[in-house]
């Protein structure tokens, strides 16, 4: 009888050990990791997702966060959220439930951990990637822009990424490449259309040209634009 009880106890102990092994291990604090200050966090960060594709997140001094990750249901509208500092990391919580953490490691560099909406925040991350400051020349323009054309029922969005890729939330072919010229951003879309984005007294303004428009040696359209609109960058 005692042998049966001992075997039963051993069985349930092994089951308990097995079940606990299935749970993700909680994150251990990084030994000797420097803390992160708000002054060095504000700005634009380039991160990589689970497919090693680069996207960017703008962290404002007010605590808002805007990501130009354009693979989700919001397309070029990206992700909106808030950020805060917790010890050795910047925690960005988006309204869609995802969390990105920019973590300072013991050697002073940074890396990224992401958690899906229902993933335990103290468990293993859903995916990991790199985290670096975006180059200053790109950071001046990188982000998500809401474009409001006169007479349009609603705004559409353009996302500029530090890799030089551009995305938009309207039209047939919604990707392109952007470059800086004459103090403005120029976007050549994959269907051949061109968009100019420039600062204006109201924030930003766009001019657009249809595909097959005549271009100069720098790739800039020489004819009058097909349409114009105002724009604002999400902050």
Task: Explain what this protein looks like in three dimensions.
The chain has helices at 2-22, 38-41, 136-139, and strands spanning 43-48, 54-59, 64-67, 79-86, 89-94, 99-104, 110-115, 127-133, 143-149, 156-160, 165-168, 175-181, 184-189, 194-200, 203-209, 227-233. A hairpin with a 4-residue loop joins β13 (184-189) and β14. It folds into 2 domains: 38-134, Lipocalin, CATH 2.40.128; 138-233, Lipocalin, CATH 2.40.128. The protein is mainly beta and 235 residues long. Helices cover 12% and strands 42% of the residues. The longest helix has 21 residues, at 2-22.
Task: Summarize the helices and strands and which ones pair or pack.
Elements lengths: L1 H21 L15 H4 L1 E6 L5 E6 L4 E4 L11 E8 L2 E6 L4 E6 L5 E6 L11 E7 L2 H4 L3 E7 L6 E5 L4 E4 L6 E7 L2 E6 L4 E7 L2 E7 L17 E7 L2
Antiparallel strand pairs: 1-2, 1-8, 2-3, 3-4, 4-5, 5-6, 6-7, 7-8, 9-10, 9-16, 10-11, 11-12, 12-13, 13-14, 14-15, 15-16
Total number of helical segments?
3
Cα-atom radius of gyration: 24 Å
Largest sheet: 8 strands, antiparallel, barrel
Per the principal axes of the C-alpha atoms, what is the gross shape? elongated
Number of strands: 16
The percentage of residues in β strands lies in 35-45%
From the coordinates shown, what is the CATH architecture of the largest domain? Beta Barrel
Helix/strand/pairing class, anyone? Answer: mainly beta
Oligomer: single chain
Q: Name the helicity range.
A: 10-25%
The rounded distance between the terminal residues' Cα atoms is 71 Å
Unreliable spans? 1-27
The helix/strand order is: HHEEEEEEEEHEEEEEEEE
On the 0 to 100 scale, the average pLDDT is 87
Write out the strand line-up for the largest beta sheet, numbering strands in chain order: 1-2-3-4-5-6-7-8
Please name the CATH topology of the largest domain: Lipocalin
Total number of distinct structural domains: 2
CATH class value of the largest domain: Mainly Beta
């Amino acid at each position: 009888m005692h042998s049966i009880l001992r075997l039963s106890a051993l069985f349930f102990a092994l089951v308990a050990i097995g079940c606990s092994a299935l749970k993700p291990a909680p994150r251990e604090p990084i030994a000797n990791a420097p803390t992160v200050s708000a002054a060095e966090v504000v700005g634009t960060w380039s991160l990589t997702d689970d497919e090693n594709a680069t996207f960017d997140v703008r962290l404002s001094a007010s605590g808002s966060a805007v990501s130009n990750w354009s693979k989700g249901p919001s397309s070029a509208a990206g992700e909106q959220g808030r950020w805060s500092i917790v010890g050795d990391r910047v925690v960005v919580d988006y309204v869609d439930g995802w969390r990105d953490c920019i973590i300072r490691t013991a050697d002073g560099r940074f890396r990224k951990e992401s958690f899906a909406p229902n993933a335990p925040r103290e468990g293993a991350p859903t995916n990991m990637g790199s985290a670096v400051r975006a180059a200053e020349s790109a950071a001046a323009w990188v982000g998500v822009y809401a474009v409001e054309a006169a007479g349009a029922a609603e705004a559409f969005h353009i996302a500029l990424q530090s890799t030089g890729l551009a995305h938009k939330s309207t039209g047939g072919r919604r990707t392109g490449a952007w470059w800086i010229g004459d103090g403005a951003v120029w976007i050549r879309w994959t269907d051949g259309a061109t968009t100019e984005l420039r600062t204006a007294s109201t924030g930003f303004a766009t001019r657009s040209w249809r595909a097959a428009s005549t271009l100069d040696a720098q790739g800039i359209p020489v004819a009058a634009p097909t349409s114009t609109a105002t724009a604002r960058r999400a902050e």
